[in-house]
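Try this one yourself first.
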């Protein structure tokens, strides 16, 4: 995890305590922490559930422009993710044996949608729709509602994405109750969704009990620019990720020092007018960077070292650099392609590997909600062939029962016809 504040140890301690309390005391611990951190007093967890009727009403009451925007985004996200769906497969060997892989959706998934400092209806769509495309049976969504307030767009998005159950619970207690279950909320098989340091730490700790998608750190953007894009565009592209969090990272890489100065001036000019200017300023001061490189080849080295969550190639010929990019969560090609399109409605998922994990991890996708089971069906001849080999290998490992099990099939093999899988 890369929330490198001095408070990391403190976060761990708090999270351990919360998870243990939720595991032991279920609903009553959830109620206690929800009252403490989100200022909602409820007499039972059922009171924190938002009914499908309330979600439908929230959708019906949305101004039509907002409803259309959500539905437009949902359709594009669904269409993109449909293409990620993998199917079961099998093949038959010459001796009639069949080998294959059966793909099945997960049964129960918990989706965490962050909501402490800002509400994220787009994250509802990005997390729930791939699970729906995969065919997950039951999706439980948890999101905090500080002071009892929840953004109607979040409810409307949950309705569009057809979550099964929705509770206003946040933080580590939300992750705990999804992992361990309680009197009111069933334990899930996998938890997905981003969140703050408490959420990330809780996910890390429940992994093993349940699956998780990834440990998402603060948002990041790296822009590589050839100096041909309006400096104000680049300035706000950097602000856009910086406004998420004081710990967000916004970096510009360019071979032209004069252009870097122009972007810096644009940032100073535009920042005061931004609503979240304090958060942006804090992020830029601690983790912002303007990096002057010799050329675009060196820019590619910087990109691959940082492995940014979002990479904007604001270049006249972005394709020329793309082949040199090895590590990035998502790449946005050309001056017109603002990274924020990917946050909302381009189609690909906005839950992406952060903190250099793009070296080995991928965007959230349908594949995160599908699992694979290997299948083997031996014909008589196939069993005889495999039995001889397996027997030899088992004896080499000193495992006699393994060897006998394999060798029985050699003796008993015949030419029985196997039906297809
Ligand atoms: N990667 C992505 O796709 C993506 C998308 C949206 C948001 N984000 C990130 O998610 C994060 C959202 O963070 P957030 O704080 O706004 O919302 P959050 O929902 O993650 O956290 C709110 C919860 O944190 C808990 N909490 C707060 N202070 C606490 C304390 N002192 N002790 C114990 N628990 C405490 C509370 O239970 C509260 O409900 C941001 O970093 C944002 O950048 C990432
Ligand atoms: N940039 C965030 C992480 O990819 C996603 C987001 C949601 N809303 C706005 N942006
Ligand atoms: Zn964003």
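Now uncover the answer:
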């Amino acid at each position: 995890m890369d929330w490198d504040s001095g408070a990391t140890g403190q976060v761990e301690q708090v999270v351990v305590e919360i998870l243990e309390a939720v595991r032991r005391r279920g609903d009553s611990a959830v109620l206690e922490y929800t009252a403490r951190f989100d200022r909602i007093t409820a007499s039972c967890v059922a009171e924190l559930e938002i009914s499908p009727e309330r979600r439908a009403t929230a959708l019906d009451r949305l101004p039509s422009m907002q409803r259309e925007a959500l539905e437009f985004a949902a359709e594009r996200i669904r269409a993109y993710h449909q293409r990620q769906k993998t199917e079961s497969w099998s093949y038959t060997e010459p001796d009639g044996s069949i080998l294959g892989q059966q793909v099945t959706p997960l049964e129960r998934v918990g989706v965490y949608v962050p909501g402490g400092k800002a509400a994220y209806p787009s994250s509802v769509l990005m997390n729930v729709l791939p699970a729906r495309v995969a065919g997950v049976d039951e999706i439980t969504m948890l999101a905090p509602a500080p002071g009892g307030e929840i953004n109607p767009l979040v409810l409307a998005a949950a309705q569009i994405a057809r979550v099964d159950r929705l509770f206003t619970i946040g933080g580590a207690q939300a992750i705990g109750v999804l992992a361990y279950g309680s009197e009111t909320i069933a334990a899930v098989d996998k938890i997905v969704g981003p969140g703050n340091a408490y959420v990330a730490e809780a996910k890390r700790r429940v992994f093993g009990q349940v699956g998780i998608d990834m440990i998402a750190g603060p948002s990041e953007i790296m822009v590589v620019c050839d100096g041909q894009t309006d400096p104000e565009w680049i300035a706000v592209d950097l602000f856009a990720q910086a406004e998420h969090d004081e710990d967000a990272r916004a970096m510009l890489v360019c071979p032209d020092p004069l252009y870097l100065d122009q972007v810096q001036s644009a940032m100073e000019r535009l920042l005061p007018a931004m609503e979240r200017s304090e958060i942006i300023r804090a992020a830029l001061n601690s983790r912002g960077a303007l990096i002057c490189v010799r050329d675009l080849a060196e820019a590619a080295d910087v990109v691959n070292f940082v492995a940014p969550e979002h990479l904007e190639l604001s270049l006249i010929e972005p394709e020329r650099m793309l082949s040199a990019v090895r590590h990035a969560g998502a790449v946005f090609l050309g001056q017109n392609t603002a990274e924020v399109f990917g946050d909302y409605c381009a189609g690909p998922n906005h839950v992406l590997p952060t903190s250099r994990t793009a070296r080995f991890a991928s965007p959230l996708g349908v594949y995160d909600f599908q699992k694979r089971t290997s299948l083997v069906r031996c014909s008589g001849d196939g069993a005889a062939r495999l039995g001889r080999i397996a027997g030899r290998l088992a004896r080499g490992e000193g495992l006699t029962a393994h060897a006998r099990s394999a060798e029985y099939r050699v003796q008993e093999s015949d030419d029985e016809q196997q039906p297809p899988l």
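Discussion: The first helix runs from residue 8 to 25. Residues 219, 240-241, 244, 343 surround zinc ion (ligand 3) (CB under 6 Å).
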